[in-house]
Design a protein that fits this description.
alpha/beta, Response regulator transcription factor, Arc Repressor Mutant, subunit A, 2 domains, single chain, about 240 residues
Amino acid sequence: MLIAGQGSPSVIVLEDDDVLREEILVDGLRDYGFLVEGVSSAGALYRTMVGRQFDLGVLDLNLPDETGHSVAQRLRGRVPRMGIVMLTANPGREQHLDALKSGVDVFLRKPADLEVLALTLRNLLLRLQSTFAPATELPQAGWRLQSDGWCLVSPAGSIAPLTSSERSVMRALDQQRDNPVSRNALVEALARDVTEFDPHRLDMLIHRLRKKASALAGPEQVFPLLAARGVGYVFSR
C-alpha cells in the first residue's frame, strides 16, 4: 500500500464497458496522477490482484459475472485498507444502502465527472492514511502543493486534484516560490517543442487554476498566483 507522500496511488478500475473503462476512466485518472489498471470482469480483477495490492478500487455495480456489491464485499474482507468507490447509472436508495453494507466507501452516479472522481479518490486516500498511520507532520499554513504535486491544498486544508498540465505549471512556480517565472519557462514545463505550443494555452491554464482555487476556498482566501508584468507569473506565499 502507498506510504503517505511516496509515489503515486494505484487504482484498479472494474468496468465492463470497454470505451468507458479505457478511454475515459483509465486515461482520465492517469491524467490526474494515478497509476491505473482496468479490468472488465470480477474474475479478471481477482486474477490481477494475485500477489499485487492496489490503494483504491473503482467498481461498476452491474457486471457480467458478479455484482459490484459482492466484489466490494470480497475486497473489503481481503484488503481492509483499500478505498472503494462504486459507480452506477441507477443510484436508488436501496442500491446505495446495499453498497454501503458491502463495504463501499463512496457511491457515485454515472457518468462520473472525472474531476469529482479524482478528488473523491484523493480525499478517500487521505482519510485512509490518517486512519491507519499516525500523523508525521503538522498542517502547514498558506496555499501549497502536496508533496507529489498532484493536489493543490488551500490554507484550510481542502484539496483540489490537478491534471498533468496543471501540475507541471504549479511545480515550476512552486520551485521558484515568491520569484517570477518567465512565460518561456512555464511553456517549457508544458511542451517538449516550445515552437509548436500555442502561448494562449498557458493563459487558459492559469485561468483554470485560479478558477479551481476559487471554487476550493472561496473569494475570501485569495489564491496567490499573480501575473508578473513583462515576465510571466509568480506563486507567492
